[in-house]
Specification:
The chain has 329 residues and is of the alpha/beta class. The protein is 42% helix and 12% strand. It is built from 14 helices and ten strands. The protein is globular.
Length: 329
């Protein structure tokens, strides 16, 4: 049976964010010739009330055909952003109607929020003592309202196993693609990203989107340095060499890089090498030592340490999991 995703539509919802799970999960197919594989997910939209219209933040309502009982059959529940937060936003508590609906969710169900949907997860206690994120403009208020949550306002999303949170709007796409990649491997996620015309993995975090006063015009970027580095991930790359590609000092380059990407050059390089290693583990028969060299980690020990830190599994387990998934007819 396909993995069942229930998307909870609440009053004041943002139609764009409501459509993200349907676009990403609903179009994910098993690898097959001609992209005719079976659907990997079943996506349904539900309300906390009986079937009927749900208000949006625009000048129209959406007719939702499933009530809260759909939550009881879900393997994953997604809560997109909504603006009519009421007590959830003002007091950090659920309404009786919302609490009753969430009580139908089975233990062990994967919980996902997009943007301010994280307020619902926090008010319901799902985020107590756990790391989470939300839209950067709401991060301070969110932290004051829910001091028990470890808020990180700089990342695009946080995967904490069975509970995942994302930043605003487009970060919901990043998170849903991440889940497809986690469930079925990079090949499936990359294909749906290509069809959706979005990058399969975005660099950096929210820091690059936060408005800050600019004291002087800045026309130079670090784009050429990143392209140069991506073409030689299998070789040693020094910070001064990247700065030289942009004719900048190391100090200026590091500051500009962090402003544009939301991460340091070293963090970004590690992320790119992990992605290269994942791709090679899923799509090639190269030995672990060769994957380590081609991805720029040098040794199998280094690759194992970085993959364990990033994904929680060693290379052999990762390959076994996703190669088996890709080979299943």
């Amino acid at each position: 049976m396909p993995h069942r995703v229930a998307v909870l539509a609440l009053d004041g919802l943002l139609p764009f964010e409501l459509g993200i799970p349907h676009r990403i999960f609903g179009r994910s197919l098993e690898p097959a010739p001609g992209n005719k594989g079976a659907k990997l997910y079943e996506v349904v939209t539900c309300s906390i009330r009986p079937p009927g219209p749900v208000r949006t933040d625009s000048d129209y309502a959406i007719l939702v055909e499933h009530g809260p009982e759909a939550l009881a059959t879900a393997d994953t529940v997604v809560i997109p952003a909504f603006y009519e937060l009421g007590p959830v936003f003002e007091e950090g508590r659920l309404t009786e109607e919302l609490a009753a609906a969430l009580a139908l969710i089975r233990p062990g169900t994967r919980m996902v929020s997009i943007c301010t949907g994280s307020y619902v997860l926090a008010a319901a206690g799902y985020l107590d003592g756990r790391p989470a994120t939300t839209h950067w403009s709401s991060a301070d208020h969110f932290q004051r309202l829910f001091p028990q949550v470890q808020v990180d306002p700089d990342v695009l999303f946080i995967d904490d196993g069975d509970v995942l949170t994302s930043a605003g709007v487009a970060a919901g796409i990043d998170l849903c693609l991440h889940l497809v990649r986690r469930d079925h491997g990079a090949a499936v996620a990359n294909e749906i990203a290509r069809r959706t015309v979005v990058p399969p993995h975005r660099d950096g975090g929210q820091a690059q989107y936060i408005h800050r006063p600019v004291t002087e015009p800045q026309f130079a970027t670090t784009t050429a340095a990143r392209a140069w580095a991506l073409g030689r991930l299998d070789r040693p790359i020094q910070l001064r060499d990247m700065a030289r590609q942009e004719s900048m000092s190391v100090r200026t380059f590091t500051r500009r890089f962090r402003e544009e990407v939301g991460a340091s050059p070293g963090q970004w390089l590690t992320q790119q090498r992990v992605e290269r290693a994942r791709h090679l583990l899923e799509t090639s028969d190269l030995s672990i030592d060769q994957v380590a060299r081609d991805a720029g980690f040098g040794t199998a020990t280094s690759l194992r340490q970085h993959l364990q830190a990033a994904l929680g599994v060693p290379p052999t387990v990762y390959r076994r999991t996703f190669r088996a998934s890709a080979d299943t007819p």
